[in-house]
Design goal:
By secondary structure, the protein is α/β, with parallel strands linked by helices. Helix content is about 50%, strand content about 10%. The model has no long low-confidence stretch (mean pLDDT about 90).
Length: about 240
């Protein structure tokens, strides 16, 4: 299924190479081919191959990045995964709903599903790169899933959704790189007008990112919003100099 080629599975700070290999096998089972690794173990390829079991091409073609921001720069929709209820946002997506959301926007957009490391999951900074989050239901008695098991659950739902749905006629979404530039400009403007705490602007900015992330901003949306900020800046900056 060609639409699955537009989806990246992104593994961040994975501690064991075996989990990378097992995740690659899960991807191959479900027709996913784009693997991105953020700061993987230096010797991951040789060790991961032992569990890849026929999916070596996914490992060999995996792209390596130094930051999650770079790994998802070309994606219009970025979904993170987390099991920590206290760190989750409102309107957390179930795997099935997330898969349908992804498939629906794939023409002409790219999407990514992000998985944190095996111990701590995604950091606050990682979560800020995601438009929304997915939570995989599990028993309270033992809620922690193996990384490759989590990848398989999401990959399976994406495979099913791709069989059942066709991408909608969706406008070209702003890439993660474009929205990050917008957020930087917005943060500067909000600091200038005194809306954000100067020492800790990231506290409110995470909430603001969540709001705009749910809006699925198009390229035009971002262009208009940045134009508004530029107009505000023209007024605010001369006033600050007086």
């Amino acid at each position: 299924m060609l639409q699955l080629d537009s989806i990246s599975i992104v593994l961040v700070d994975t501690k064991t190479s075996d989990n990378i290999g097992a995740a690659a096998r899960c991807m191959m089972n479900m027709g996913l081919v784009r693997l991105a690794l953020v700061r993987p173990p230096a010797d991951f390829l040789q060790k991961a191959s032992k569990l890849a079991a026929g999916s070596d091409t996914i490992l060999e073609q995996a792209k390596i990045f130094s930051s999650l921001k770079d790994a998802v720069a070309d994606c219009g929709l970025v979904l993170g995964t987390s099991r920590h209820k206290g760190r989750l946002r409102k309107n957390i997506l179930a795997p099935q709903d997330a898969a349908r959301e992804v498939i629906s926007i794939l023409s002409p957009n790219r999407a990514a599903v992000v998985f944190g490391n095996e111990v701590n999951g995604l950091t606050r900074e990682d979560i800020a790169c995601c438009h929304e989050l997915i939570s995989i239901p599990s028993t309270d008695r033992f809620p922690s899933l193996n990384l490759s098991h989590a990848v398989m659950i999401i990959a399976y739902e994406l495979f099913r959704a791709a069989q059942e749905l066709h991408p909608l006629s969706t406008p070209e979404l702003a890439t993660s790189e474009a929205t990050d530039a917008f957020y930087l400009q917005l943060q500067k403007t909000l600091l200038d007008v005194g809306f954000l705490e100067r020492d800790h602007p990231e506290r409110m900015m995470l909430t603001i990112r969540q709001i705009f992330g749910r809006a699925r901003l198009s390229k035009r949306d971002v262009s208009v919003l940045r134009g508004i900020l530029t107009a505000v800046d023209r007024v605010v900056r001369p006033a600050k100099l007086k």
